[in-house]
Amino acid sequence: MTANTLAVDRVSKRYGDVVALDDLSFEVHPGEIFGFVGSNGAGKTTTMRIALGVLSADSGEVRLGDRPIDLDVRRTIGYMPEERGLYPKMKVGTQLSYLAELHGLSRTEARTAVEHWTERLGISERLGDTVDSLSLGNQQRVQLAAALVHDPAVLVLDEPFSGLDPVAVDVMSAVLIEKAATGVPVIFSSHQLDLVQRLCHRVGIIARGRMRAVGTVDELRGTGRQQLLVHAPGAPTGWADGLAGVRTLGHSDGRTRLELDAETDDQQVLAAALKTGPVHEFSLHRPSLTELFREVVAA
């Protein structure tokens, strides 16, 4: 295994009768942005806390390369929790320098790193302000700076985009892409699936503590049933109802959306559509990550 691959290996966790994680496994490779998505209570935060070493697993383990997550490994991880963990009455610059020194940087190294990341994240003018005086968006930028200031080998971010305005989302997205480009494995959870679809190399969908699907966005979007969009202006409602292995999902203004079984030949559908008159569009519809997520979670 590559030295900086983050591996979650058959991890289980229970709270009494509640199964939080059930034999969960996946990997995040160097240079990869991995989107970790699921409904509230699916197990995302529990997984991240176990990956960080804050919680212990009942069984299984998390490794960075071949090393289990111990104190030395934890020092190399940049973590951004969903519940922001900053000191509200402490000044931004002082706080970031303090956190950097806790991770082993010298005072000079910490000051240089703080200057770099606050400039990069657009908050350099707020170094002398206390955290509680900042907007939610700027507090999140400070929290991300805290995760980055010690030059981590891994980034683990829990809902980093929550509540951010579009400009802040763009800044944070660019930073994650830049860090991944240096070989850092990046994992983040988010309910903003359009953003996950745009940013991530691979995605894992968790439901009720189990990993239901893992793959690239294109791979995942190709696992659902094939859908066709047919625009045949002269076709009556129900024109495809008699075709074997075909279900009509919707029909409006001459446009029909169909779902096909895996073995169904789409050419028979085209032939049937042409019998109704001219066909202006006959195209494969690929489900979005949001549509796929709903299908996987409901299964």
Automatic annotation (TrEMBL):
<dbReference type="Pfam" id="PF00005">
    <property type="entry name" value="ABC_tran"/>
</dbReference>
<dbReference type="InterPro" id="IPR003439">
    <property type="entry name" value="ABC_transporter-like_ATP-bd"/>
</dbReference>
<dbReference type="InterPro" id="IPR003593">
    <property type="entry name" value="AAA+_ATPase"/>
</dbReference>
<keyword id="KW-0813">Transport</keyword>
<keyword id="KW-0067">ATP-binding</keyword>
<dbReference type="GO" id="GO:0005524">
    <property type="term" value="F:ATP binding"/>
</dbReference>
<feature type="domain" description="ABC transporter">
    <location>
        <begin position="6"/>
        <end position="233"/>
    </location>
</feature>
<protein>
    <submittedName>
        <fullName>ABC transporter ATP-binding protein</fullName>
    </submittedName>
</protein>
<dbReference type="Pfam" id="PF13732">
    <property type="entry name" value="DrrA1-3_C"/>
</dbReference>
<keyword id="KW-0547">Nucleotide-binding</keyword>
<dbReference type="GO" id="GO:0016887">
    <property type="term" value="F:ATP hydrolysis activity"/>
</dbReference>
<dbReference type="InterPro" id="IPR025302">
    <property type="entry name" value="DrrA1/2-like_C"/>
</dbReference>
<dbReference type="InterPro" id="IPR027417">
    <property type="entry name" value="P-loop_NTPase"/>
</dbReference>
<comment type="similarity">
    <text>Belongs to the ABC transporter superfamily.</text>
</comment>
<dbReference type="InterPro" id="IPR017871">
    <property type="entry name" value="ABC_transporter-like_CS"/>
</dbReference>
